[in-house]
Amino acid sequence: MFKKVVKLFVVILSMSGSCYAAGSYGTGQNMSSNMASAQNFIEKENFVAALNALQIESQINSSDADVWNLLGFVSRKLEKYVASEKAYKRALEIDPNHKGALEYMGELYITLSKAEEAEGLLEKLKELCPSGCAELTSLAESFKAYRKKN
C-alpha cells in the first residue's frame, strides 16, 4: 500500500509542472531544499528525517497546504496520530479542497476506526472529483477494505 502512495505522490508531483500553488508540490527550481529533502526521505521511507525537514519547512512556509499535508502523512506513518490530524486540519484550513489532505486524512480516520469521518471526506472528494481522481480512488479502495473487515 505504501509503495502505491509513494508512486501516486510521484505522479502527482510530475503533473504539477513548475507551478508552486496550493494543490501542487512544486518542482524544479521552485521547490525548497527542505521539501526536496523531505520527498527524498519519503521515497526512502525515512519518515523521521522527512518529519524533521517538514517541521523546518512548516516554520518557513507556514501557509503552504502541501507542506502541512506531507507533515500529516509522515506523522501518520510514524503513528503520531494526533500530530497527523492537526497537520491535515491545518492543510485544509489553508485549502479546504486539497485533495491530497482529504485523502490522507481519510486514511488516518480509517486507521483510527473513525468510519463516519472517513466517509465524510470520501463524500467531499466525490464532490471535488465528479469524473474521478487518484485521491478519490485510493480513499474509496481503503474505505471499502475497511468496511469489509469491520
Summarize the helices and strands and which ones pair or pack:
Blueprint: H1 2-15, H2 33-43, H3 47-60, H4 65-77, H5 81-94, H6 99-111, H7 115-128, H8 134-149
Helix pairs in contact: 2-3, 3-4, 4-5, 4-6, 5-6, 6-7, 6-8, 7-8
Shape: globular
Uncertain ranges: 2-28
> What's the story with the biggest beta sheet?
none
- Average pLDDT level: 85
Instruction: Please report which band the strand proportion falls in: under 5%, 5-15%, 15-25%, 25-35%, 35-45% or over 45%.
Output: under 5%
Order of helices and strands: HHHHHHHH
SS-based class = mainly alpha
Q: Span between N and C termini?
A: 19 Å
Number of strands: 0
Number of helices: 8
Radius of gyration: 14 Å
Could you characterize the architecture of this molecule?
With 150 residues, the protein is mainly alpha-helical. Helix content is 73%, strand content 0%. The protein contains 8 helices and no strands. α4 (65-77) packs antiparallel against α5 (81-94). It is globular. Residues 2-28 have low confidence and may be disordered.
